[in-house]
Design brief:
Growth Hormone, Chain: A, 0% strand
Length: 410
Amino acid sequence: MSSSAARREWATMWPLPIVAMLGVAGSGIFAYASGIVMEDMTRAFGWSRAQFSTAFVLQMGLGLFAMPAVGWLIDRIGARRVALIGMAPFMGSLALLGLANGSIWQWWLLCLLLAACQAFVAQVVWVTAVVGRFEASRGLAMAVALAGLSLAILIWPILAAFYLRMFGWQAVMPALALTWGVVALPLTALFFFGPQRGGAVSAAPKKAASYGKAFWSSTFVGLMVAGGLFSSAYYGLIVHMVPILKGKGIDLTTAAALAGIMGAFSIIGRLGTGYLLDRLPTRPIGVVIFLAPILASALLWHGEGSVKVAAIAVAILGFASGAEFDLVTFIAARRFGHQVFGSIYSVFVAIISVCASTGPMLAGALFDASGSYDLFLLAMMPMALAGAVLMAWIPLAPTGEPEAAEPAHA
């Protein structure tokens, strides 16, 4: 695509990826802030960390059904309406987590309610609008939108630690929900618009055929398995990052700041990868990205008490995590097309999320069994290696085209 076409897209639609970035950041509040309150809640209520982290498995299990339904809704009423309908319920369900009273069943039910509401503001809602509006600069536009995940890593742990010190753990989630809503609600109403709609009836048979081809394609399966392995390792590490660092002798404030470093490098990884995906072959980029967590986990495993080593490790992990989801989203958008992207991508994200939810539970269980996170750090290495092998294998060309015909991403 020409640089002039890319400039025209940004000139007319630049607010859209930025608002999408804020929306994606909001969808990650619980994931990236829950580690801050984990110790206080488990100590206050006598829960194990595995019990606390089981909430993620329940949430992702519900998401396996909720996310495809939301994708179907996006394809019919548009991403804008879905987002505006879902933002207030999401904020309310997040605030309700402050009412946890010590019953693990109540905690799990509150987390399930959050998952149901969160589906309406999940990243598929925000990314679908960007994919439908950008083509010449799609890689960079998606990178900006998905930088919301990096922004979430950067700001939510720091804000959560601040609210924890000021008001106690009960106020952390309500305060974060309000912080996000004050900024995101008005901007979404003013600037968040999806692609022009039309021709849904005549396109229905073609869409149905596209769905079937997508779900049974080697690209979809390969991306699902590779992304699932990476996300399980990464998500477990993110949720437990602050406790991991504290276990290495690093204090809470420094640990939260180091988690913020991960977010900053995740932004660099996303934007840099988005820029490169518009210009360079996809496959070698993917293999390098999927191998990076091996080095990060090795450094964390050996870096006892060293803030410098921990900072390098979280920087590498942040860069890889930022690049990884941009990579698989870019491949999915190019492979399957934006007409059916909402439904297909929502199923993909739902399955990946279920895989990711096993990471926090595995990390918590290994900690409960051994008193250390070292076993989990070791387990990350073969998971990342398997993902890299899959990225070297899966077909990357658009549906219906030979891979050799892909001009810049062979």
